[in-house]
Amino acid sequence: MQTMYQKMDDAELASALADLKAQVAEVKARGLKLDMARGKPSPEQVDISRPMLDLLSSSADLTDEGVDCSNYGCFEGIPSARKLAGEFLGVPAEQTIVLGSSSLNIMQDVIVHYWEKGVPGHTPWHKLEGVKWLCPAPGYDRHFGLTEDLGIQNIPVRMTETGPDMDEVERLVATDPSIKGMFCVPKYSNPTGVTYSDETVRRLATMECAAPDFRIVWDDAYAVHDFGEKPEKLANIFDFAREAGNEDRILAVASTSKITFPGAGIAFFGSSPSNVAEVASTLKVGLISANKLNQLMHVRFLPTLDAVREHMERHAEFLRPRFACVQSKLEEGLGGTGCATWTHPNGGYFVSFDGPEGSAKRVGALCKEMGVTMTPAGATWPYGEDPRDTNIRIAPSYPSVEELSAALDVLVLAVKLVSAELASEERA
Amino acid sequence: MQTMYQKMDDAELASALADLKAQVAEVKARGLKLDMARGKPSPEQVDISRPMLDLLSSSADLTDEGVDCSNYGCFEGIPSARKLAGEFLGVPAEQTIVLGSSSLNIMQDVIVHYWEKGVPGHTPWHKLEGVKWLCPAPGYDRHFGLTEDLGIQNIPVRMTETGPDMDEVERLVATDPSIKGMFCVPKYSNPTGVTYSDETVRRLATMECAAPDFRIVWDDAYAVHDFGEKPEKLANIFDFAREAGNEDRILAVASTSKITFPGAGIAFFGSSPSNVAEVASTLKVGLISANKLNQLMHVRFLPTLDAVREHMERHAEFLRPRFACVQSKLEEGLGGTGCATWTHPNGGYFVSFDGPEGSAKRVGALCKEMGVTMTPAGATWPYGEDPRDTNIRIAPSYPSVEELSAALDVLVLAVKLVSAELASEERA
């Protein structure tokens, strides 16, 4: 599709460029300082979890089903928290481990463990040449960082509206035994907001893999983070995997970081019975037990998944107007210009935005010059290399709607100027 | 030294054996269930930290020097906690990182990091054949587990009354470049209770190492855990190391696990400025930020090292009678028998007990038959291999004084019977 600037004649384009540059100069002069880079809730949104802090006091019962949460022990997590983890991840409580506050940390521990010692019965990954990993893109930069850090080669696979391009995924894993795993954010994917279709989930769980030690990191980070009219429903990957005898393939994680306090929540791991036993025995080498008081405080506040969903309704009240603002501002500023497409998520924390080819880095830089910080262009691709340089992740949760609105005006202006410049450069 | 049983004539020994066996049978019939295995505080002792739980409530200020502790960010830890960590470890606050609840986890992360990628400028340890590590013994089994898990060869070095045998340590590290590090619990060492002398600290900091990437894990787990008449004073190893240009050698850790809530405290890392920067950049790959609300709660409760020391006075009140009970029971039961020696610590959590050669495993098993669980014999040595099979770790903190007293009677009886049996077997 052509942009409106490509369709202009030279005089029109020159005039549009002059006008846009004048607007940019004007914005620069205003000395804005706005931030749409970070997928973190606003302070007011975080505050809805404050009542949780009253639940553990000096006189509280600090036991959970007979487990003393105030002393060492109970490595796998307290019983109530494991029950909640099971509900979250779609496995029985015994197939979970509840740990500290970071699911990213759990993913790293498990991947590093396989890298060090291998999936049981298989060669440690550090002893193999050219281990590869599939990275749906646009995707989550911190995922890609885990494998990159170990020297594992990240292979991008394009995201579609039903999840990763499964034809491509199946083709790759069927023939290449050095592909050892894949990252997935299956619900309200970061940043596209896509929820994997049932068919995608089934294919991931049942596909033939050349590597017998192939693993899927199933990061259900936005399992309950709905704000659309109707929550999207993700199929239970364990059901498919169990039937196909592939339950060991699935390494599921989630956390309450965007449910209670970011960075101070509790994190869950769920997998097959044998994986859970093996991962627990591995993690025990470096941990006596996790913070069980934090687990206890959480389950007192959110004892069931229903309680979690009720709490998430309140989060949605903060997110809904922000995402509506993104949608209306982008539609108003860029609708019909041919300069951009963007997603309309029903949950999660991001809008995935695509400008013309070769625009994203320039748009990011221009926004910065105008005082608006965006997630660095390219961050949504492995090694920061967006092959077409189109994708920008918009994180609208932290700023106020007013700030957000101002930041989106800047983004729209930047996209227009860069699109016009690109059209002009084509002609040169 | 001979045991009293070795000095007996055959008839006396036979009579003593019969008498001891009768006593054992009697104890077995009582069906005791006592535990001296675990270095954890008693529930009553843990409860003294309960007031901390009232300090973060729904209406509390959740910021620390301008840092919002209720949201992502501030990876290195909140300012007040880093100050406290600096006081703890003897380094400036900027040379610390404050993380989750486990110092063991920090040690593992750092060792695994060097194993994966190497100390900057040096070969990753996983690419080297036969990496070795020095393990003062008797020592802490979980330390030994960290290196054992990576296939690093643990080399025991005997503990003396002033710390590890430094002549042996210096001899080994000077000539063998495959020795990459060493574990130290420098104050009230687990389990001997020894505090390293100033001279030992100085030698560790300044000794010549064949490996330029040699590291000392300086686990100051019992930094403030005094209960004797006068706190023992540990020299600041960083002062010596800095002077010798070896500051990078020292990886210091500590935690509040035995200060506030075991497993739910906050853990500290401290090292040279360059190590701290490098370790932070490494850990950031797998962690957005640690639980800063827990950090905030801790520094509100214990804002300074002086406040910590005051709080530790109260802990000492629980520990003092228990350690006194161990001393009086062992003296009463085994004093002058030649069957045992044991330590008289002024702090920490353990008494290190040595019976006759070849006795420890049998004593442990016999205690178990009589209903008393001890730390498994051998646990204080790498690979569980106590070369003379003499050492038993006594952990008196958890049981009540009454239970402890009963458990020590059992231990005394077991040591006597095994000593008598050993004397009898010598003659056969």
Automatic annotation (TrEMBL), chains A, B:
Keywords: Aminotransferase, Transferase. It is an enzyme of class 2 (transferase). CDD domains: AAT_like. It holds the Pfam family Asp_aminotransf. GO terms for molecular function: L-aspartate:2-oxoglutarate aminotransferase activity. The keyword tRNA processing does not apply. The keyword Ribonucleoprotein does not apply. Its EC number is 2.6.1.-. This is Aminotransferase, class I/II. It comes from Collinsella stercoris DSM 13279.
